[in-house]
Amino acid sequence: MKSANSNQLFTSVPDSNEINEYIKEYLRYSAYSNTLECFEAEIKSKQVSSKMLNKQQQSKQSNDEIPRIFQLFKTDNVKTKREINLEKEQKLFNKKYQQILQAGRQIFSVSINLLQLLHSLKETAKNENLSETLENYKIQLGKYHKVIINEGKPEGTELITEQVMHEHKTKLFKNYQDKNIDGMIEVLLSLRVNALQIAPELRKNLVYELIRNDVFNIEATEKFDFVVHLLDINNQSLRHAITSLISVISSTLRGVEYLTFNGNMIIIEKIIKILKEQENGSVTQRFCLAILQKASIKDTVIPTYVHNEMIQWIISLIQKSINSKIHIFCLDFASAILANVIHTPYTLQYLEKQSRFAHQVMEQLLKFIKDQIQVSVLMHILICLSYLSKENFGKQMEECRFVERISEFVEQYSVINTENEAAEIDKKTVLDLCAHMFHPKDSSLDNSETLELNELKTEDRIREYENEQGELIFECFQDEVS
């Protein structure tokens, strides 16, 4: 029986030559030249092979003598169930990825045919602007085509040239003066397409170039007339185009400072107004929330949020999501805004003075944690509650049974059943948050070693973070086209 186990083990070990190659690579890397020379000489004289054969024969009598390196290179390693599932998912994703690419190629084929058809109609149409429009469509189609042929990998290694940036800005203002809405939309979307196409590591520099070229003519005039007039035009396509580009610019702290030049919050106020006019979950609403979430890193914008009743609006949005479906992006970013707003000294002082309103906010947030809401939203709600769990709100905490309700939540949440590993991780994260925020002195409840939620980054730290990271994420939604 013992001999059979030994034979089974040696049928599973890799070839000795393979192990020898790993050893030689290690010796070269570590500059053990003399040892490497001796090792190679011994291999050539086949002394090692005969010794290994002898060792294998001896090992049939005792598994204890098998070198551990053979254990490391066993070829019959059994994959875990999770690894098998991940491989299956990867194959499925690859298949879907290829299907999307194929669909993209078919769409471009149709688009090219349509362009050719328009060219054939150009002479009969006698439209002076048709030639320029067709050329612009060709340029845009070419940019999207590059994304497809590169299989989704950004091929842009350079920023938009100074000339191209200047041409876009000139066209934008000319179309504005001519009241050509379609022309303005085309230029704004063209700038955004360039932003989406460029390599991620260059996106921050692209934002800086948009600011340096003063694309909205804010710094040159020290006014916001141009961008405000664009935002005031009641055209959904134009609002989608302008808010999506503002979202790109607001992706850095410097971009937020550009949009609030000299402390003027008119753009923020206009974005809030547009946000509230949109259908819940719409694409334009998502871009508005993205802008406001990014801008909320600056404490100076928070009073504008508070006085424009963003706290009430966000709470109402989350309340509506309990009984009706609202896009998760809206809920996630809205609740993140709420956390950023409540965190600031300005808002906390405001709530202290508005004690009844503070009670209403606390009561509603405590109700939310018992409802079926997305985990990311739940985390933001818990963070909001942690900011309100201060002595200054002791009266409201007592009236709302704050401590008891948080304890009840933790007790109930700790015993919920999770369907998969991801849900289990989410559950653990939520419980770690509660332990960290509501029981900071009881380290036994906190399994997290890295959470530092009691200290949000200051603007200086955000600048430092941006400089270190360099990569930005620009929002892009599948349903934008419709």
From TrEMBL:
<dbReference type="GO" id="GO:0097542">
    <property type="term" value="C:ciliary tip"/>
</dbReference>
<dbReference type="GO" id="GO:0036064">
    <property type="term" value="C:ciliary basal body"/>
</dbReference>
<dbReference type="InterPro" id="IPR006594">
    <property type="entry name" value="LisH"/>
</dbReference>
<dbReference type="GO" id="GO:0060271">
    <property type="term" value="P:cilium assembly"/>
</dbReference>
<dbReference type="GO" id="GO:0005814">
    <property type="term" value="C:centriole"/>
</dbReference>
<dbReference type="InterPro" id="IPR040369">
    <property type="entry name" value="ARMC9"/>
</dbReference>
<protein>
    <recommendedName>
        <fullName>LisH domain-containing protein ARMC9</fullName>
    </recommendedName>
</protein>
